[in-house]
């Protein structure tokens, strides 16, 4: 069985559909890094559309990477089960997998998108590998502890910022934004150079803001996988009800505060407070999304999103390729030229095409291109790519 096809009986359509839907949220956030040099600059884009920015900040930013992280942790338990069925040692298999994921992530960060999450997942996955013997209950407690400590520290840091930090120099930031846009619109060489220049700052944000929350969601996903929460959702109706009635409203309140600050006070000291509040509340909203989507995916809607989720890695990289062609010197160099409404429309269009292409691809292939490569690295054998028609 080593290196052979994955039997459909071991796939969870709900898991694939959740991952497929999460791709839309990831695209809805990442597109702005390509579209405007002002994203994350600390000052407002003069050409922004506050309504579009509010929607993205409220419902997408800081939420969907958490959902992806939860699903990564859940899939980790499936990898454990797969290794057990194949009768192979799990640890060497996962070390190879994470090495392959890290290699793809590094190439992605340097060539296409400095905000890459794959390398972070590969490294944090080693922590999960070390903790794989943990009980589901302890995994949940550790996850909650990580969220509470990280969120409290950032909120406290934000309060100190409010008391001590001076506002950003708008003229200096605008000059840097102009240089960034010029680099991305210059040549492929200047695109790579600018990605490398921005990597250190991005890594700092990932390590100190995203990584603790991502690891927490890994652990929650791991616990959910051990308890077969997505395989048997009917056993956890109380959990879904709590997430909808209590968790989601708290998450929406935190998201509302975060969005208000992001739209009206970007780069201000209170933005650090908003980050802390988001760390504390965004996991609850992400959980609310799962509760709603599981109801939706009891219908035929699951079949619409599941194919994209089955080739999520390839789709994630493809999003960066398309955005790179549209906005940088790899293609049309349109960074800073499209309206916010046009960018939002582009996001919807790209995602719709990905849904259709994923379904079409899987009619004749068992894996996406990068899924095939990662599986080959993981198993140390050449998987059978084509479906038998």
TrEMBL record:
Family matches, as InterPro entries: Bact_Transport_Assoc, DUF418
Pfam families membership: DUF418
Residue stretches making up the DUF418 domain: 224-380
Source domain of life: Bacteria
Signal sequence bounds: none
Transmembrane intervals: 21-39, 51-74, 95-112, 118-135, 142-160, 201-222, 242-261, 273-294, 315-332, 338-362
Keywords from the named record: Membrane, Transmembrane, Transmembrane helix
Protein name: DUF418 domain-containing protein
